[in-house]
Amino acid sequence: MDKLQSKYDIEKRDLARGRNLKMAAVATPLALTFIPAVIFILLTFIFGSTPPVAAMFFFVGLIVTALGFMTGISLAAFFAVRHANWTKEMRERIASDGIRAEEIEWFRGELKTSEKNALRQVQKTDLLLADAYRETLASRLTATRIIKASKRELQMTQKRQNRIKYLKAANSEKFLSEVKRDAEKIRSINDEAKQMLAEAESRLYMIEAAAVRGSDLADSELALKKLSARSKELPLALEEARMTEEIRREIENETAVDVES
Asked: Is 231:199 a contact under the CB 8 Å cutoff?
C-alpha cells in the first residue's frame, strides 16, 4: 500500500509547472501589449524629429501593439486551458489513493457552500476541531468521488457483459463469470462508499455542533480514524478493480480477433 500511495505524490516539478502555466497566462498578454507600445513610443521620441516620421512610428506602433494584444490574449487562453488540464490531472492523481486533510484546498470547487462556511467558522472557534473537520471533509470528498467512479465502472462492466454474451468464443462463459465477479466487487465498493459518505456527513454535523457548543471530540477519535482508513482503502480497491477490467478487456479484444480470423 505504501508503494501505491507514493506513486501519486505531487513533486516539486509538478507544482512548478502549474505555477509557470499560471504566470504565462497572466504575463503573456501584458508583455506582448506593453513591450511593443513602449518600444515604439521610445522610437517616436528618438527618431520622430518631423511630424510625418512621428506619425508613421505612432501608427505602426499602434498596429503592432494591437497585434501583440490579440496574440497575447490567444496565448493566454492557451495557457489557461493548459493550466486547467494540469489542475484536473493533479486532482485525479491526488484522489487516486484517497484525499488527505492537507489536500482539500485542491478540491475547494467540489465543496458545498455550507461546508466552506462551516470550515471558516470552526477554524475561528477551535483549531483541533478544524483539523477534525478537514479530515472528515477529505473522507466526504473521497467517498463522493468513489461513488461517481464506481457507477461509471459498473456501467462499463454491464456493457462489457452484454458484449461478451454476443461473443461466440469457447471461453466466453469464463469471461462472463469473471466480469460478473468484478461487477459484484464494484457494487460492494459503491455500497461501502455510500456508507462512508453517510458517516462523513453525519460526522461533519457533529463537529459543527461541537464547535457551537465549544466542546471537544475526544469521544469521536475512533470514528475519525475509521473514516480515515476507509478513505485510503476504498480508492485502492477501486483502482485494483479498474486494472483487472483493463486486463480483461485486452484479453477479450485478442479473443475477438482470433474468432474473426
From this structure: no
SS (H, E, C) the chain: CHHHHHHCCCCHHHHHHHHHHHHHHHHHHHHHHHHHHHHHHHHHHHHCCCHHHHHHHHHHHHHHHHHHHHHHHHHHHHHHHHHHHHHHHHHHHHHCCCCCHHHHHHHHHHCCHHHHHHHHHHHHHCHHHHHHHHHHHHHHHHHHHHHHHHHHHHHHHHHHHHHHHCCCCCCHHHHHHHHHHHHHHHHHHHHHHHHHHHHHHHHHHHHHHHHHHCCCCHHHHHHHHHHHHHHHHHHHHHHHHHHHHHHHHHHHHHHHHHHHC
| pTM higher than 0.85 | no
Are 94 and 169 a contacting pair, CB within 8 Å?
Answer: no
Whether residue 130 contacts residue 191, with contact meaning beta carbons closer than 8 Å, is answered with: no
Dig out the grid coordinates for 113 from the structure.
Answer: 457552500
Task: Please name the residues in contact with 182: beta carbons below 8 A apart, sequence gap of 6 or more.
Answer: 157, 241, 244, 245, 248
For residues 198 and 193, give the distance between their C-alpha atoms in angstroms, rounded to a whole number.
Answer: 9
Asked if residues 83 and 22 have their Cβ atoms less than 8 Å apart, the reply is yes
What is the chain's pLDDT, residue by residue, as a tens digit (261 residues)?
333 333 456 778 888 888 899 998 989 988 888 888 888 777 777 776 677 777 777 788 788 888 988 998 999 999 999 999 998 888 888 887 778 888 888 888 888 888 888 888 888 877 777 888 888 898 889 888 888 888 888 888 877 777 776 766 566 677 777 778 888 888 888 888 888 888 888 888 888 877 776 554 444 554 555 555 555 555 655 666 666 666 556 555 655 545 455
